[in-house]
Amino acid sequence: MPPPLPPVTRTVGQLVAETLKTYGEHWQAALVIGLPPAVLSAVATGFSRAQTLAIVPLAGAVAATASFVIASAVVSGVSLRSRHIVSAAIVGVLVYLPFPFLAAMFILPGLAWLAFIGLAVPAAVAESLGVRDALRRGFALGRADYVHALGGLATLTTLVFVTQIAASMLLQGSADNSERTAAFLAGLVLSPVLFLGAALLYDDQAARVGTTREERLAVRLTPRDSAQ
Question: Whole-angstrom Cα distance, residue 87 to residue 92?
Fold first, then answer.
């Protein structure tokens, strides 16, 4: 297999491949990452739409933020004892709160919002930023290559969503599992892909800040042997 492209020219497909590789290298941490959304998924199973809209925004903010912060720490190699982890958690809650209402209309507006500002969370972790600076940095990262950010998040979300539904149905059909148990197990194993992928997406966007689409394309088309 050829070596992967550097983050500045990494494609969405390679982002997914690197995400799965990272998952395999840190599978124990991945299960910890998957625990908060798995618990929320199991608890929310069977909720009405009204109950979901009432409970999920706050509970989802806590669960998604916890998973994203841990994933960002795993990818960047930063200790969870860092004092800036608290800033990242605050940023995560602030960023997530509008997401359920945007996604309730259609998932794309919610993803568009996260692509625009969501990378503030791994920025706070990797760059040791406070809340305000992290939000500014997240905005800069989002617009560095917005199409790549949105495409990456959309691909990861679709992959996890479809696979999680299939896994949940399989778990219910092949064993004596309740709907809640199946939702928990599927979320525990599969949801880390989304958070690890988003944390890796931070590297892509950070490498693209200050570059143009034409410059990135030129780097991608340059033969590696001649570049060396």
Answer: 9
Helices vs. strands in the chain: H and E counts, helices first: 12, 0
Instruction: Give how many domains the chain has, as a whole number.
Output: 1
> Which pLDDT belongs to residue 219?
66
DSSP, residue by residue, 144-158: HSHHHHHHHHHHHHH
Range of the domain at 58: 25-218
The model carries a pTM of 0.87
Task: Say how many C-beta atoms besides its own lie within 10 A of residue 160's C-beta.
Answer: 20
pLDDT in tens, 121-161: 999 999 999 999 999 999 999 999 999 999 999 999 999 98
Residues 8-67: pLDDT tens digits?
889 999 999 999 999 999 999 999 999 999 998 888 776 666 666 667 778 889 999 999
Q: Which residues neighbour 199 within 8 Å (Cβ) at sequence distance 6 or greater? A: 68, 71, 72, 74, 75, 76, 122
> Quick one: pLDDT band at residue 225, thresholds 50, 70, 90?
very low
* Long-range Cβ contact pairs of 96-100 (< 8 A, separation 24 or more): 96/60, 96/61, 96/64, 96/65, 97/57, 97/61, 99/60, 100/53, 100/56, 100/57, 100/60
- Domain-embedded: residue 79: yes
**Inside any domain, residue 148:** yes
